[in-house]
Amino acid sequence: MLMMWVSSSTNAQTDKIEQLIQQLTIEEKASLCAGAGMWHTQKIDRLGIPSVFMTDGPHGIRINEGTNFTEPSVKATCFPTAALAASTWNRDLLFKLGQALGDEANHYGVQILLGPGVNIKRSPLEGRNFEYFSEDPIVSGQLASAYINGVQSKGVGTSVKHYAANNQEFERMLISSEVDERTLREIYLKAFEIIVKKSQPTSVMCAYNKVNGTYCTENKWLITDILRDEFGFNGLCVTDWGAVNNRIEGIKAGLDLQMPGDGGMNASKIVEAVKTGLLDEKELDKIVRRNLSLIFKLSANKSGVQPLNEQADQLLARQIASEGMVLLKNENNILPINKKKKQKIAVVGTFAKSPRFQGAGSSLVNPTRLDNFLDAMNQVENKQFIIQYTDGYNRLGETNDSLLKEALKIAKESDITIVLAGLPDSYESEGFDRLTLNMPEGHNKLIEKIAEVTSKVVVVLQNGSPVSMPWINKVDGLLEAYLGGQAGGSAIADVLLGEVNPSGKLAETFPQKLNDTPSYLTWPGENRKSLYNEGVFVGYRYYDIKEIEPLFPFGYGLSYTRFEYSDLKLDKTELADTENLIIQCKIRNAGNCDGKEIVQLYLRDIESGLIRPVKELKGFEKVDLKPREEKVVTFELEPRDFQYYSTKNHCWKADSGQFEILVGSSSRDIRLSQKVNLTVKQKYYQIYDINSTIGDLAEHPFGAEFVEGIKKMSQSRVKLEGLSGVEKEAAIKQQKMSEASMMEMPLKKVITLSGGRISENMIMDLLTRINEDVKSRQK
């Protein structure tokens, strides 16, 4: 549902903006194209044009005057980062998160919240992965849409980022993401498309990098042709902070706002460009018109200072954290811990009392409070267990004989040992990428040594992205807690003690080793280029087609209960390319406690005319079930869900044939399947030129007549009568080779190799006739 967070522009407001455009000087128009300082838009007092205030960040309000992210910001709720929030797979919860952020933004007078981040997780080493949702655009797009709808329902704007193909920190201001159009549209632009169509965000933030050699901030194809004209975006395109390259080219491309301001340097260049005719003033007016529209809409929504509801936001942060944490291993039912049983529990790891709870960089939040796991365990009411604690390692992740000795001592004395480990702040952040999947050596060594003296070990990870786990087969329990925000410590205790049944599932694949990852050979790139040679095979799509076993697959997560899948039904098994498909199945909680299951719908194209992923996620639903309760889950697939992007035809299309509907608990745990036949009636034709092949031409009715004539000419030369068996076999082979070569031959070669029988004029006349027909069919 598209959230109408502001009222539609009235005729009066439109008239007012047009009057202002007439009254503004060129200098004033140019000034509106850049910010005033770090966080405000330019105001013009003489015409009553106010300023708009914007600030970071995606999981909490951060207000600083400058760019020193280490300076204390105002106090605000630090919610879990996107990596954890995505693991909830819960649209309703993400909407509530957006509402809470909108309320806090209103409290501080923030009119645009700079988030969410929806870049695809191309590599697990990307330093900013904690700030992004998923390796899959459906998960990213749908959860981000819910978040945006929540924020904007409070009258606060959003800025979805970073557009586009911004998938590394290495040389992020210079690198060119070299990626083909099909991959861009199916993977890297897909989340933005979903968001625009479901949520119409206030603004889209253009990234630092280039795409195929052109900076995102001056890429007309990305900003105007795709985002505005095709997706239907009607908001503001703003730069990432400092991302502008050539401001004049940016205006021509449709870039509205440069942030931060530069003291008027680019404004002067804009004025000069208009006066010399390099820039048409009408193009500048388009930019000014969009800026004024946003300014007045946000100003109309601006409310007075609202009180913070810190307690409610703390509880919401705790709910998101506990619902997003992913139980990855639970051998011998070591979890949940029975708090009423008399036992000794060893808690090891500095993260237990000084948690890693958020990322670093522009999203750094100054929390209103900060829970830690050790305190949360000690504060459990009516507990029968006794806790012993030791650091095990220092803040840098280093350990030594003394720290290890104390850790082993309390582990030997305890019935269960809980080790908190992961990635320190210095290992992942905005601004740099990780070099390895490894956790600090001290963390791994600590876990290995403890596992040698006791088998009852539970590891809790606090990290923003996947890590290698050399000790995985030596521990009974493993909880991926990600970066849980200010309530993360209490949420970990909730899950381990069974107060909350874990229901999170991975929104990204955890690889066994780095050289298993899709982009291993080309990431992060060289010579200022990053080659996206893996194409559409990102994340689970790659592991599936290469038949590589991951450490933990996409969509995976355990529960303290069991779920049964049954009774898959399709409303039709013969499907036309204009029809929707309704899919239903039953999910039953077969265990003894309440639980939530994330039901995942995948689609497999069995007979595609080109290489496609083995399966692709098309939908998901989170179902809350009481013990032995059963519910029906319904999905609906639209024609677009069956299609891929054809670079040959420059459109989305599907091929007739069989598809398989797959319903499962993860990408590697498919419980139900059924096939459906798709009949594609629409004909797709390309625009042909002199470099098109004879085979290309055969796809069009007019071209097919021409191709048949050439085939007959070729076949008439082959005489099989009177040949011996060996000679006949050689002649047939020669004929097949000639026909295959002919079908792949560009038309310009036909002219030169026909000996004058086929002239250039004949070919050009044929191309004109075919292309006119194609254009008439496309209208």
From TrEMBL:
A single MF term (Gene Ontology): beta-glucosidase activity
GO biological process, one term: carbohydrate metabolic process
Location of the Fibronectin type III-like domain: 597-667
Entries under Pfam families matching the protein: Fn3-like, Glyco_hydro_3, Glyco_hydro_3_C
InterPro entries with a match to the protein in the record: Cellulose_deg_GH3, Fn3-like, GH, Glyco_hydro_3_C, Glyco_hydro_3_C_sf, Glyco_hydro_3_N, Glyco_hydro_3_N_sf, Ig-like_fold
Keywords, ordered alphabetically: Hydrolase
PANTHER family: BETA-GLUCOSIDASE (PTHR42715:SF10)
Similarity comment text for this entry: Belongs to the glycosyl hydrolase 3 family.
Protein name as it appears in the record: Beta-glucosidase
Organism: Aquipluma nitroreducens
Lineage: Bacteria, Pseudomonadati, Bacteroidota, Bacteroidia, Marinilabiliales
